[in-house]
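Posting this for the archive.
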Amino acid sequence: MTEEFLSLEAGDYHLKICPAQGGSISQFIWKSFSVMRATCGPSILETACFPLVPFSNRIANGRFEWKGQAIVLTPNLPDSDHPHPLHGFGWLSGWEVLQSASTKAVLGHRYNGGEWPWNYEAEQGFELDQSGLVHSLMVRNLSDIPMPAGLGFHPYFPKDEQTIYHGLHRGEWQTSDDVLPRQLVEAERAMDWWKGQPVGTRSVDTVYTEREGSLKITQPTHGYCVEITPSSNLPFTVVYSPKGEDYFCLEGVSHPTNALNCRTGANHIAVLEPGEHMRVAVSYTITSYTTTQRGAGDRDPLEGASLS
């Protein structure tokens, strides 16, 4: 049976997971601080973090062609007429508790075909220790034909006037009004597109390419820093920082938005043969703002993840 909530604790870290609500994180706390936003409502869009499987972000009008077959998906953004299905199916599904302990948990989700004409199974792993959280995600093709696949994570973080986000990326996608990629702007080398200014000084909902190193969030108001290290197979970062809101999102993802309709260059969509799987992970380490040092960013989080 799917439990209502799972609670994990290690050192200064506390994690609360809601399997039935998209396998989402409800709370991620370090000491007395909510590192991710605290759950403020019953909707999946009001959680702290949810998984992206078997694809990330939007597919334009829910239509794409795969190996000569036309695929059509129904729009799925809750309480919205948004025309582009997004984030896959895991976030709107209940997940089963496969393993549960004081510092670790594994959740499972299975899709038995439908509009997405492939069967798959997915697993999430959550591991807490004294150094922080490793959150991992796996998808396996259970069909007898090749399946396109992509993965990612959709965490929400608190934002105030002082919050600084720092990440180095080579490119920034300019988007249309309905948040589809339109033109890629590239720099000579990976750069901080905020140029050191608070994250709230820009209102964006787009994808950044060719990430170098880890991502960092500094919260001077509360005196802590979050280091976020996606695995090397999550080279893209979706940043959603809406104007006037007290949160923003940093989503480590394996492919750009609308990649299944990309006709030029590499779309970074994985092709999983029958029985094959892909796995990604992201780690979070929190330190006091005055003593911030490199931690999880020195290693790929997949090296320490036990999810298989």
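The chain has one domain: 6-303. Residues 291-298 have pLDDT under 50 and may be disordered.
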